[in-house]
């Protein structure tokens, strides 16, 4: 198998981008970007460490959980998780991040690229509190580019169409997966009960 090793060889495989895909990239958030963020309950955060190891992690909460501080700055609260801190540790050494915001039922997405920093600023944490609980930290992202991404991937995948979804009962539970992967002594049912209990106590 041969692999493409240069920009020139890669471009030979594809048509040149049209004018619109290039012009739509903005250097700051406009009214549409702000409106999208106010309605989005979910974002995927791409980051990488100082050695080039990449990671993508989800962040989610009620619509509008990401605050727009100004046209070039947004703030993403860090709700309770597994404390691996993959994204946060990456940002400490490499601030570059790529963000993909989704709105359920909408095939278009909002892409934001920029530089992130982590803060434990009390005032900002209080501003982004949920259910009376402050986030441990906040990711503050300086927006370098923002643009709407077309719907093709979501249309092809039929992501928002329930009739295309697999029967959840046909898929293993997380408890079953962890039981099998880690050879745990606990049964899958016990693992699932423990996970459900943890979810109920630690969403915020």
From TrEMBL:
Q: Which InterPro entries match?
A: Pyridox_Oxase_FMN-dep, Pyridox_Oxase_N, Split_barrel_FMN-bd
Taxonomic path: Bacteria, Pseudomonadati, Pseudomonadota, Alphaproteobacteria, Hyphomicrobiales
User: Start and end of every Pyridoxamine 5'-phosphate oxidase N-terminal domain?
Assistant: 34-150
Q: Which Pfam families does this UniProt record tie to the protein?
A: PNPOx_N
- Which superkingdom? Bacteria
Protein name as it appears in the record:
Pyridoxamine 5'-phosphate oxidase family protein
């Amino acid at each position: 198998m041969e692999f493409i090793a240069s920009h020139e060889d890669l471009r030979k495989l594809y048509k040149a981008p049209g004018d619109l895909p290039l012009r739509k990239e903005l250097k700051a958030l406009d009214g549409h970007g702000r409106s999208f963020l106010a309605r989005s309950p979910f974002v995927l955060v791409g980051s990488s460490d100082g050695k080039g190891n990449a990671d993508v992690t989800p962040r989610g909460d009620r619509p509008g959980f990401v605050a727009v501080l100004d046209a070039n700055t947004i703030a993403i609260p860090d709700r309770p998780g597994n404390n691996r801190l993959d994204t946060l540790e990456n940002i400490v050494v490499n601030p570059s991040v790529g963000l993909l915001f989704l709105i359920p039922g909408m095939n278009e997405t909002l892409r934001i690229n920029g530089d992130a920093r982590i803060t434990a600023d009390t005032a900002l944490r209080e501003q982004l509190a949920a259910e009376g609980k402050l986030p441990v930290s906040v990711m503050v992202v300086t927006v370098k580019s923002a643009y709407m991404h077309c719907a093709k991937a979501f249309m092809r995948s039929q992501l928002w169409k329930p009739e295309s979804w697999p029967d959840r009962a046909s898929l293993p539970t997380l408890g079953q997966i962890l039981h099998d992967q880690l050879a745990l002594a606990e049964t899958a049912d016990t693992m699932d009960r423990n996970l459900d209990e943890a979810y109920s106590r630690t969403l915020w």
